User: Fold these one by one.
Assistant:
Number 1:
Amino acid sequence: MSNLPEYLLDRVFDALREMVWRAWTDPELLSSWYARGETIIHKFDLKPGGLGLNEMRWRDNSDRRKIVFQEVAPHEKLVWHHSSSDSDWNIIANPMMPDWPRVILTIVTLEHMGAKTKVRLTWEPFEATDAEIACFAGAVDNMSGGWESGYVIMDEMFVELQAVNT
């Protein structure tokens, strides 16, 4: 266990683990729920050391994210380093929050619960400065809104996918 601030979000989805895994790992599905606005997946190489490059667009704004996968255990666990990036995919400080950690360790676990799946999302600063750790700690209580809005979209997506598969 780390003494770093940590963001945890547990959620049970009314969908089989294979379908929830697909929502996290199929670029087409991922882009439909991952962020408010439009999400463009430029690259998604799902393997340890593989890159995920995505861009979130809203109104006249754009935010690029670089993901480096650390661990991929199909249907069970994803671990990656998550960073803001410039247009050449170089890691940069977050343009909207300069003290935000340059790298976030993200862990997503999926637990089989019969016809349901429990997802645990964990975020933690990685190799962060004191200022970055303080910024992250100050934001933890307000992080659920974005993730929860994506999870609501995911709920709707699972209903549609299950209807197609029946």
Number 2:
Amino acid sequence: MKLVGAVYALANEFPLRERFGLAQQVQRAAISIPSNIAEGRRRATERDYHQFLQIAFGSGAELETQIEIAVMLGYGTKNNIQDVRALLGEVMRMLNALLTKTNE
């Protein structure tokens, strides 16, 4: 959830012309991560949970790419970029651990 807040703070720094472009995409990818974790956890089987964790992991990879595009385009402050990268790295490590555990 902290990642979502950090991504929204970063997206607010994007140029206005990106309001319906990259800003919206990074926000959606960020929201997708905890949403898929929650949905998967409420499913009936461990297999379903694992599948939704994989989707969340994919959204994290998508967000990583979008953040790199934002950096390439010069969007966002250095501090907000660093915050998002740090939080995203932590989330991806946790998801990787959960995926490993649920795949046993």
